[in-house]
Structures are given as structure tokens and as C-alpha cells.
Amino acid sequence: MHARKLHHCALAVALLPALASCASASTAPRKTLASGASVTLQPGERVDLPDGSTLGYIAITADSRCPEKVQCIWAGDADLLFELAKDGNEARKFHLHTGTEPKSFHAGGHTIFLDAVTRGTDARATIRLNP
């Protein structure tokens, strides 16, 4: 029985650095996107906009883009889900696309453009904010 307790204690000590890194990741400062600039986000990340609103990249919901190094008749389309929240109001969800419309979203005197999307289930999105 003593060996079993020792094993559990050793396991708990071994997991402490992993738990500490999780805690520090959640306290990392959020990105800010200035007008005229761009930023790359991973699914689940948020960015603060100049008007005090927060833009969140939720997920890639569909991806029919032509695979790399393959010649296709149509380039395809990636559909990404975002949400915009301001002043504690309910977030407005919207989609941006790579191959079809809409490729931009107008909000708060700014326009949010989808500039690029990497491939894969955790596709990173590069967005640009123009006045």
C-alpha cells in the first residue's frame, strides 16, 4: 500500500509543471488589432478592436479548397465562423469565406477582411481591420 501512495505522489509532482503551464497560458495577454493592421488567430482566440469590441475566431466550419499541388477546376472555399461582442451585449456570429462571399464584415465603422487561412482542422486565420 505504501508503494501505491508513493506512486500517486510522484505522479502528482510530475504533473505540476503541466498544470502550471495551463494556468499561465490562460492569463496570457489578449491580442489587439489596430486599424489597418492584420493578425493571425487560432480557433478559440480573441482579439480586441479599437472600438472596444472583441472579435473571436470560433472555428473553420467547412473547407472544400483544392488540395495543395493538385490542379482543380474550382479553387474551393473555406467557411470560417467568427463572433463580435461589445459592451457585454450578446455576440453577433458571422461567417467569412475564402472563395465565395462574404469575404468581409462591416462593424463599428470598420471592415474585417479574411486575408488567409491555413489548412487543417485547427486552421489559423489571418484577418485585417480597415477603417
Rg of Cα set: 20 Å
Main CATH class: Mainly Beta
Structural class: alpha+beta
Cross-sheet strand order for the largest sheet = 1-3-4-5-6
Q: What is the 3D form?
A: elongated
Report low-confidence residues grouped into runs of 5 or more. 6-26
Average pLDDT rating: 81
Distance between the termini: 67 Å
Q: H/E element string?
A: HEEEEEEEEE
Residues in helices, as a percent range: 10-25%
Largest sheet: 5 strands, mixed
How are the elements arranged and paired?
Elements: H1 2-26, E1 31-32, E2 38-41, E3 46-48, E4 54-63, E5 78-85, E6 92-97, E7 104-107, E8 110-117, E9 125-130
Parallel strand pairs: 1-3
Antiparallel strand pairs: 2-9, 3-4, 4-5, 5-6, 7-8, 8-9
Describe this structure in words.
- The chain has 131 residues and is an alpha+beta fold.
- It has a single domain, classed as DU1608 C-terminal domain (Tick-borne Encephalitis virus Glycoprotein, domain 1).
- The chain is built from one helix and nine strands, in the order αβββββββββ.
- It has a five-stranded mixed β-sheet, with no helix packed on it. Strands 2-9-8-7 form a four-stranded antiparallel β-sheet, with no helix packed on it.
- A hairpin with a 7-residue loop joins strand 8 and strand 9 (125-130).
- The chain is elongated.
- Residues 6-26 have low confidence and may be disordered.
List keywords for this structure.
alpha+beta; 131 residues; Tick-borne Encephalitis virus Glycoprotein, domain 1
